[in-house]
Each structure stands twice: as C-alpha cells, then as structure tokens.
Design a protein that fits this description.
This protein is of the alpha+beta class. Helix content is about 30%, strand content about 30%. The protein has four helices and eight strands, in the order βαββββααβαββ. Strand 4 and strand 5 form a beta hairpin.
Amino acid sequence: MSTTQNSNVHSQHIFYFDFGEILQEFIFLRLIAKCCEVFSWDEIYYNAARFRTSKSCLFFINTEEIHGNINSYDRNLIKVEVISEDKTQTMFVLQKMIIFIDEIINRDFNLEYFRKQYICGPVCKTCSFLDDTMVLVNLITHGNDISTLNDYKPDIYHKVTLELKLNITCSRRDNEI
C-alpha cells in the first residue's frame, strides 16, 4: 500500500517503533486490532493498514525490516506515518500507538525483555548521516508523558519541541564522533 504524497511537508510526520531483534509481526497484528476499535479504517493488509481519525487526519502503519550486516542484527520496525494539518491529531495518533503497544507488551510478552529493546521516535537525519544507519530520537522514557514533549530532552544530542509541528534539533557534530 503506497502512502499519499502530500505537497505540504509540514503535515506529514513519520515515527518508527523499533523492536530490535524481536519480530514486529507479533505486535503488528494486535496493533491493527486495537486501531480498528478506535479509528475508522480504509484498507488493511497483512503488513500495512490505513486509518482515519477524522476527515483531515489520515495515518498509515506498516512493518519494515532493516537487514543488519554480518556484525549486527536485523532491525524490526513498525512505521507510523501521520498526515494531518492539526498537530494535536498527530500527537493523538502517536499517543494512541504508544499506549496500544504498551498494552500489548504488558499483556502478551515478557515485559523486561521488551523494555530493553523497544524504542519509538522520528529519525534524526544528522545522527543517521554521521553513523551511516537509521538513528531514532527515542521519545519513550520511563514515566514520560508524550503530551508534555515541549522542551523534552530524550538524550544529550536532541531536543524535541512542539511548535507548528513536532521539531527535532540535533546538536551532534562530526568532531564529536
């Protein structure tokens, strides 16, 4: 299923849920079921689905795998792409995805193992370029409330703000590597 290309990049946000070595299919199908309870669905396939929260907010979820080299493991991802002019709708979708995945993990899986493996966030283009891999800004920390992301610092390099859209700034430089 291809996503809708929108000419206004300010309305598109992409987040990834990275489960490391854990196969995302175990969570993805349960996530589809939870989304169907809350959102209107347009299309559902075994590895992708399209939902709506309103007429002006559309989001896609799908599975992705990044194959590791000989020294690293494959990364199993769930990609969430939200297309909406309203930042509150984008944050609402992200909050729901985090809540749903936490509920699935708490109910069906070994919580300690997943907590060590699982991260969620947008891609940092600077860190990804410097490390030559996809680096996520982890928005999830123990006790973190996703609704209070203003000036949230997930690590020493990144700052997350909510202005016209979710913004990630990276302070990492070539000479710090």
